[in-house]
Queue: 2 jobs
Job 1
Amino acid sequence: MFPLNGGCHMKFLLTALCCMVVLLSVWIKRARKSEGELKKPIVHLLWLAIFTVIAQGVFFICDSNITATVAIGFYYAGIDWLLIVMLSYVEAYTRIFRGSRAAKTVVYGLAVLDSLNFILNIFIGHIFVVSQHVYKDGYAGWSVSRATPSFTFHLVFTYTLVAFCAMALAVKAVKTPAFYRRKYLIVLILFLTVVLLNGICKLAKSPYDISVFLYCMLGIQISHYSLFYKPKGLIDSTLALVVADINDAVFCFDLWGKCVYTNKMVEEYFGRDTRVDIVNSVFEEKIREYSRGEQESIQYKVQLETDGKLRFFNVSYHKLIDKKQCYIGCFFTLRDRTEEIEKFKEEHHRVTHDKLTGLFNREYFFDAVEKLMAVNPDVKYTMVCSNIKGFKLYNELFGEKMGDEVLKMEAELLERDAVEGTVYGRISGDEFAILVPTKLFRAEKFIKNINQMKEHFNNSQYQMHIYVGVYEIDDRAESVSVMCDKAKLAIESHRGDYNAVVTYYDKKLLEKSLYERKIVGEFDRALEQGEFCMFLQPQIASDGRLLGAEALVRWQHPERGLVFPGDFIGVFEKTGLIYRLDRYMWELAADKLREWKEQGREDLYISVNISAKDFYYIDLYSELTNLTEKYGIAPKNLKLEITETVLMTEMQNQTELLERLRRYGFQIEIDDFGSGYSSLNMLKNIDVDVVKIDMGFLDKTERVERGTSILNSIILLIKNLGMGVITEGVETKEQVDSLMGMGCHMFQGYYFDKPMPIEVFEEKYR
Ligand code: C2E
Ligand code: CA
Ligand code: CA
């Protein structure tokens, strides 16, 4: 098969068609890799384009009449299907119509009919016949002649499809926003150009029908525009809009550092007038610096004052580089983070500070201490903690609002005196803590502040006591919480001494605290196992007669041996265990009295100690009365020793209870008269049977003669008030003689006997 006659145009045409086939194959491959609903119609379009190219190619080069008839018949039929695929492409591309199933069936039906017609034509030639024609340039090619009405059907069908496609594209181009118009116009223009050129070729009756060539070009162009083309103008406009509307301020600079564009936000942040200054002051230097550098984008933060308000910005710098890697300018985006930062700061403050006083809260104080110590490894630090004694009581008495005032004032004073290099905070309800470089710590400052607070808050109902514990940190590795605990432990050692406002931690305190914890843990066992036992110390009349005895507890400890009450009573009082021990001791005493009663020694009494704390924990009246009933003893034989501090602080509440106990028949004795707060006044207001004076207290505080004279007046007063008086701690004969001279005739003390186990006591005094 070779052209009958070769003209150079003919060769050119053939070569072009071959190239076309190759080109189309390549595009089919590309199109198949793409995504989306356009992929299918486009691939079909390209396949049909190949089909028609080959059909026309064969038509050009064949030398038999029948082959030419078949080829051109296929070509025409191919055009039918090409246009149908074009239509489904337009449907997907424009989405302005949706071919119904019926319409599609009709169109496909007509195409099938037309195609069959062309096949039939091969045999009966009812549409066209082909004949050879020699053209001027010597080319002998095939031409189609004798087109019949059946050919007209083909033309009407195909041009209807063409019209439909063109219309759909045109309507879409008009309807779509100007922004996207181009996308449809390009396809429409291409399509119409092809149709037009095709028509021209037909009319010109050129032997070289280039319409197939045009269809191929159309297919490729359409594929390109639909699948791969990204309209730069469209993108540019889109980006410009995005930039204009973006919430960041955008500044663009040209190669020479001149600001060529700013968006709306720039105006909003900086105002129209200040813009130039801002631009110059903020970016000039940065542009110079960054444009010389290698980095293509750089992020940094700035604070700028805009409209008198300080704003925080995240700045992002970007170099603009052209395709040849040349620097052509840059742009900056500024994101306003003021609100975010302020919110963060607020939130941070909220979670790290105490709401009431504004000081650091516990957790943050701990953090701050750790940080401060970490950055100053060579500084020696001291942890100071303060605590208000009975703050709960204050709240109850005067209300929480007043309580808050106390805390606020304490915080203010702390803040006022805080020197640089310290951190402080409120670490719990009424506890404040401060970490201070040891060489800057001044105890006087704290004492002064505490006195100021006392002056402010003390009244007739309430005496404020604030204590400060000081721990010179010797182990930096321990946790801040432990440091605070140690300072607080120092506070514990204030107990009893109201004047020691500032106390220092030492290792013994920790040992003591550990010891206390240990014995508290052992208490239940000890009570159950009967490790607590009763020692008796005789009370003697001036004529040497035994009057009775004081019951004093001893702890027969399995490991530590005999433990004296001084080592544990205080701890049990502090931890609320004392009432259980006391109740146990009273029972031992009552049992012993029952025994003595049975032995006919009803004249002897036993004095038991009643701790101040017992008044809180138990119903003393029913406890004690039940006891006498249970053991069938006379209440007067169970003397009750109550320390004078109970009567001092709980006077109102307790006088009535004591009165009831006395009415029941118990003898009440004021213990330790002359210790801390002895008040002669108190004696007038309370009725007790006996007052017990401790020699030890007197000796310690006064010179001998003065002590003796005070003792003398006290004894006189007690006797005048009609109460009995007993002196304890009597160690010498002189003391006994002198006391007898003063009118005291009852004694207890080492001079007579030490406290002793019951068996020993009974042995000795029977
Ligand atoms: P207290 O009630 O004042 O008991 C008197 C303390 O003085 C006893 O110490 C006793 O041994 C001691 N003593 C007696 N005569 C002399 C003396 O001539 N010179 C000196 N220097 N001391 C003398 P003890 O037995 O060690 O008791 C200490 C404190 O423990 C008691 O002081 C009391 O407050 C408390 N206590 C003892 N037993 C009990 C108890 O069963 N319950 C409660 N709540 N407290 C108790
Ligand atoms: Ca006592
Ligand atoms: Ca005593």
Note: The mean pLDDT is 87.
Job 2
Amino acid sequence: MTKSQTKNILLGITGGIAAYKSAELTRLLIKQGYSVRVCMTQAATQFITPLTLQALSTHPVHLDLLDTQAESAMGHIELARWADHILIAPCTADFIAKMAHGFADDLLSTVCLASNAPVNIAPAMNQQMWKHPAVQNNVQTLIANGVNIFEPAAGEQACGDIGVGRMLEPSEIIDRLAITETHSRQLAGVKLLITAGATREAIDPVRYLTNRSSGKMGYAIAQAAQQMGAEVTLISGIGCLPKPSGLTRISVESANDMYQAVLKQAENCDIFIATAAVADYSPVQQNTHKIKKTANHLQLELQKNPDILATVSQQFPNIFTVGFAAETDNLIQYARQKLTNKKLDMVAANWVGKDKGFDQTENALEVLWKDGQCSLPTMPKQQLAKELLYLVEKNYRNKDK
Ligand code: CTP
């Protein structure tokens, strides 16, 4: 394990028996070169004394949200800004629930909300509690919110049960942290352009043609790329997803608007990921007045829209291009055809229809490139976005070799 450069880590300790391992964890973090500040919940202080953690971290332990003395030294907002990483170990079922629902009723939960540092948690609890759907649902929410979970290990528990729920050993937590850190800046300095969501093709001022895409996958990729250090521009079709912080979003309506916006931004990008479900056709005639229902039959003449992705790959051959393929059958075959026909570097293919793909929170992808392929199994779209970006990054770096 290599020593990290000095980085600030906030170690959150919540009230579980595994809190006794936090002393060793603090020692190992310092050995790794981290500057460590400890924040404990009231329950945690029942398991291990703040004095022990103060001695090991060489800094006063942060305990209370409404402590005027502590706030004047380093208040919760300063603490939140100071942290490059937040690690909560052990993290109880109660604290997982708090984080999942955005509670801010103690210092640690408030700091988690007020910080944009990556958050890692090492859950520890009774095996039955860990299995409970309420806990698992909360864990899924945290994953969706970008929190890294250092999943508990199986084994004998303090309560005598045997099963999954034991906190990882401090040395294993350090290893997991190192892996997370490696990925966390993988796209630093890379300019990434992403299209997301559905386009709307106007028929008249009140009606339009569109599709079922929610934009969730594209937004998840944009957010994950930004967290991995990329400079992200998101060109988004119509939708109501909130703008992820820290990136540029350009909102467009029609396929043609998206085409114009992408070509304007493409000159300045290294990777282009086209997740948008761009309408293939748009009405030839856009009525400026609302069409009245006087006719018994109405024919809509459609014309083909420009292919944004194919245009980028043709006009900017140096850009690493990633396309998406949503198919109801022959997934791999059609995806490979897209890779070749549009001269792409990578295609991420997924099944659609029958509750798959569009507007779902989870998805699975078959990722293909010229001489390789990788299956990413069903997982929350946020997690899937990260896994896809690891593959994109690896192939992008190999492109000119
Ligand atoms: N795409 C694009 N511009 C378009 C159409 C599609 O950039 N006008 C991009 C999508 O964002 C996606 C990929 O191309 O990355 C999808 O390819 P496409 O050929 O549109 O897929 P299908 O419409 O499913 O193709 P087909 O009808 O041939 O199955």
Note: The first strand starts at residue 7 and ends at 13.
